[in-house]
Specification:
Structural class: mainly alpha
Distance between the termini: 43 Å
Largest sheet: none
Radius of gyration: 17 Å
Order of helices and strands: HHHHHHH
């Protein structure tokens, strides 16, 4: 048990959203030279996502925290921040990045969180290609981290995220 686990979780969620903003700003101020720092900040943001739930579940108070329902918005901020970085650093055309960002926001607002995540995945795929081309050693580090997370969180991915995504897709088809 962690006495203030939910407060720590809320702070981690806030930090993740702010890190998404920092990632986008790095595209403006650092451009392509900021890529290694962007990767470090992205991994930190992903770690906050991993840890906030751990702290929240270990708090003895069963009531939800103030920000417990906003975790997906912090995730969205990071995904949007990555696309912002890619646009501002000149890796992705502004019009394409804006289209992806607006599509993700529209799907999130008008349909579901589960269907918005593939739009954020596009940001991560684009970033992965850039990292692979510019800094392959960082690509290996991120790949190892993602593989470790997939193994550690496989059950939640299988039991929660994938069914939620496929249910959202089915609802689009009217089934």
């Amino acid at each position: 048990m962690i006495k203030h686990g939910k407060r720590i979780a809320d702070l981690l969620t806030i930090a993740r959203a702010l890190l998404g903003i920092v990632i986008a700003v790095l595209g403006l101020v650092g451009g392509r030279d900021a890529l290694p720092l962007v990767v470090v900040i992205l991994v930190l943001a992903w770690l906050t996502d991993l840890l906030d739930g751990v702290f929240a579940r270990r708090d003895p108070n069963p009531a939800p925290s103030r920000l417990s329902g906003h975790d997906a918005k912090a995730d969205m901020a990071v995904g949007l921040g990555v696309m912002g970085y890619l646009m501002f650093a000149g890796y992705v055309a502004m019009w394409l990045g804006a289209l992806i960002i607006l599509s993700a926001i529209a799907v999130r607002i008008f349909h579901s969180r589960a269907l918005a995540f593939p739009f954020f995945a596009v940001s991560y795929v684009f970033l992965g290609v850039v990292i692979w081309q510019q800094q392959p050693e960082l690509f290996v580090i991120i790949g190892a981290y993602l593989l470790l997370i997939a193994v550690l969180r496989w059950r939640r991915l299988r039991d929660e995220y994938l069914p939620e995504f496929f249910a959202a897709v089915s609802s689009l088809r009217g089934k």
